[in-house]
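[worker-b] picked up task from shared queue
[worker-b] task type: protein-ligand structure
[worker-b] ligand name resolved to zinc ion; SMILES cross-checked against name lookup, match
[worker-b] sequence length check passed
[worker-b] input payload:
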Amino acid sequence: MDVTLRCRAYPDEETASEAWRHIEIHRQIRNHAIRDYYSHDDGNRPTAYDQHRKLTDWKQRWPLFSEVSAHAAQQTVSEIHKNVETQKGRRKNGHKTGRLKWQGSGERRSVAYQSEGFDVNHTTGQDGYATLRLSKIGYIPIRAHRELPATENIKRVVLKKERTGDWFVCLVTERPDEDLPEKPDPSTLDPVDCVGVDLGILSYIHTSDDTAVDMLDLSDDYDRYGREQRKLDRKEHGSNNWEKQRQTVAAAKRQIKRKVLDYQHKLTTWLVREYDLVAVEDLDVKSMLETSQNAKTKQDAAWSRFLDLLEYKADLHGTHVVRVEPAGTTKECSECGVETSKPLWIREHSCPACGHTEDRDLNAAKNILSRGHEQIGAGRSESTPVQTALSTGTNSVPAKRVVEAGSPEA
Ligand SMILES: [Zn+2]
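[worker-b] inference finished, payload out:
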């Protein structure tokens, strides 16, 4: 599996401006490859291989294209073919997708080097710093909080300029599967080590052992973001002050993104460390957005990234993550299986068939766990002594506590 290490990058002014010029050229290469791709009829469109060969001609016609690393240019071309594949996958799942879009000036913010054209020198500079060399761009000091991988172990390097003006580098290494911890045999799983997670409405998550983790409170951050955005709207577009303010707005937005990501890191780490099996709903984010009254909150939660992170960490920790069919998890009774529909505002599950009563999200989390057990072949989970012992009221855990129980890995 691929493991990504993100580091701050500190290019000097000259290197930064050269890197930005390269990114602009890559944007043009990408746009050109997209135009070429769609100029052929469906069924007759060029493959990545075809377009890599065409690059040679393009470079002759537009010498600018030869000013960037040839390997990086190939990456840029390959990227659109990956995008096309992703779109095909989404269409298979019933999504509507349009054509790939052109990138406007300033929209492209990164350049990627795959396998070649870079190295990392660990011996230069201060502690925690190293120097990244990118072919045709130059030398860039980078800084990481963890040990940097050796050049020969790095598969891919991505240099990115954030809208705030800060530069980052992602170093992607491959961790061989045999180095990953083995996941326990499903038939030997102890019920205490298995958990169902309901991605809730009122709390961020609600687990089958009745832990509710609070939603991250971002209201102050949103207030600040809104305030700075309004200031920006009052400035003359394109002026120096406007540009300054635009960076302030970008910084406020990035602060929100960072907080959410940090929170998700801590939650997912906690789950994979605490349990051997984590069952979650395979949520379609889009349909949630459409049905929710509170789209902004849902977006903050960024469920799909949460699930991706969870699966990524589960592989690193030897934990099973099972995505289960979400339909009906809130309707079904976790005790007897009878379905009763209830509107969103009814927070309690009360079963007309067996009389079982409990919190709506807890009931759903238990159903999710049962489905996870079934799916992985561990049989339907029985109500365990642990579950019974805990089901005497919700332990609403402040986010901070869970976060502290998590790891410093985030
Ligand atoms: Zn029931």
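[worker-b] attaching auto-annotations
[worker-b] The chain has a mean pLDDT of 83.
[worker-b] releasing lock
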